[in-house]
Amino acid sequence: MAAVHSPVDSTALFFSITSSVFSIWRRDCTPYGVTKLIRVLLIEDNPIDVRLMRADFLKFGSGEFDLTAVEHLSEAIRFLNENSIDVILLDLFLQDAAGLETLSRVREAAPEVPVVVLTGLNDEAQALQALKNGAQDYLIKGSVNSRVLFRVIRYAIERKQGEVERRLLEQQLMQGQKLAAIGTLAGGVAHNFNNALMVVLGHSNLLLQQMNQDDRSKVHVEGIKKASERAALLTRQLLLFSRRQAGEPTVFSLNKLVLDMQMLLESTRGEEVEFALELAPDLGLIKGDPSQIGQVVMNLVMNAAGAMKDSGKLTIETANGANREILLRVSDTGCGMSPEVCAHIFDPFFTTKGLAVASGLGLSTVYGIVQQHGGTIEVSSKPGSGSTFLVTLPAFGSTNPDSPTDSNSTILVVADEENSLGSHLDTFAETERCEVLKADNWREAIEVAGAHARPIDLLIADAVTPGLIRQHLVRHLADEYPEMAIIYISGSAARRMAANGALPQGTHLPQGKVTREGLLRHVEGVLKKCEQSKREDRIACVG
Amino acid sequence: MNNVIINMQALEDRVGGDTELLAEIIQIFFDRSPDVMASMRRAIGSQDAKSLETTAHSLRGYLVNFHAERASDTALELEIKGRQNDWLSTEETFSSLERDMELLQPRLTAILYRIESSSLLRM
Predict the structure, then answer these.
(1) Domain check: are A537 and A424 in the same one?
(2) FRET pair for B70, CA 20 to 30 Å: which of A137, A186, A277, A422?
(3) Taking CA atoms, what residue in A is nearest to B15?
(4) A392 and A253 part of one domain
(5) Which one of A46, A57, A90, A94 would you mutate to disrupt binding with B, by most B Cβ within 10 Å of its Cβ?
(6) Which residues are within 8 A (CB) of A424 and not within 5 positions of it... i.e. 6 or more apart?
(7) Distance CA A49, CA A70 (A)
(8) What residues of chain A score a pLDDT lower than 70?
């Protein structure tokens, strides 16, 4: 019986993109037209058994199995060291080994390969013992027909795969828990460290403003400022990676994400490897989880860097696709991959480095994230000629039901990552046909707003963001969109600001604590007012 | 004691009616079994229990494939004697095995002759 693959799932197709290696890959991952044979090693010293089994395989399993027979255990061990095998059929009594010792030596040589023991009618007790010692199954010689033989082989492989996967998942879970703990710790430290850095940066700026042009200390303060900015960039990256859970989908720039990660990305390569960024200046935005897309970039870059031992070129490229997609291309000039390796790279636990060195989950994680974001990933590679991974993600607005042309108003939310404001607004946005853009900070807000086709009607923000920066950026947005209304969430902070004269005239400061319903009522009210009078009551504060 | 010298039906089922395959395995048996018998004889002579167990096991492996039930039972007896280092009446059991083999060989020769004749007729 020949191995037949299930019908093609279009979402799981991978196209190579260079003509020299043109072929189509399935994710599961056999090249089309090529049937993967189950490689069977028969360790048997009885020539009659070997001959009969060969006849069975030839007559009934020639399209599915590839049988190799060896007579001695020593020969088998040598073969296992040099070849990849899917299942072993083992006679426990050989000329150079007997009994359960035969099994233990085979398992030592190939611990991940399932073993089916071949036994005589009167040796079942030993066969049962062999099962306890790790054999997957046993067959009684002389009473086996080919159908039973092949079924036992297939089940043995499946059971063993299940065992291996379970063990790896357990290890992965433990490792994941450890990493999550480290991530939480790192995230906490980075958050607090970042706050301290903001103070250093703020004071550096104040000092620089107060200094005369010819002040001899100016160069030192500028040094402090630059170092603080670099440290802030690093802590931002740490925060990005410590936040591993799927976050709120936000609209963001892939270019900015790559630039934010640049230092981290560059650190993955060897000294002699050239690092190139080719970022499209007019790149559209994407909607998704920036931390997950960051992980995609990081994993692809680490993979590319790993393919180049001494020298080469690692290129990260972004571009707008022809059909409103955003393209991310990561290419290297490294060792490349054979079609066989290429066919398995997105399989969980597949690694060419050995599972002791790598988890084998990097590219399967990439695949999962890209799929979750409605995108595709393609790979082209050739041994000795490097590899290129092409990620295609939908551009923001291309498939979004809240696309600008359909919506009544556009709300821009600038909120801390812990703030549930964004999710509160999602339901509201659906019913009121509003488009909600989200940004984690003010700089991102300006970027998101700038890349958006329509003006911003309402800005909702957390007033506790650092004073000077916020005031400057709010002014920038207000100048850009003169008809934009503003709602501040943290009313107490806003009231302090109003008392200091930091808020423009016309600021409304309602009393009481913010509730979800209260907020939505307020948003609705402000948007209605906006409709009536675009410039009236432009700024309100809640809470 | 099982007196079936050769279970023809089971043997034919095993080879699936493939007479060429049957002829081939009979030939292998004729080529290999004398050496195994000789080794077994030496093992008994030198009271080498391990060797007796191994050689009797090998021969039993051959015999099982032909469903030569009587001879394979006797081989099993010798195998167990070897495993248990039991030399009581081992010579007698070996003599029984030789007799079983003498009964088996003409049967196998007849099968071989039949196969060869029919293939000659087909030529």
Answers:
(1) yes
(2) A137
(3) A52
(4) yes
(5) A46
(6) A516, A519, A520
(7) 12
(8) 1-35, 121, 172, 175-184, 187, 236-248, 348-350, 353-361, 397-408, 415-433, 453, 462-473, 489-518, 530-543
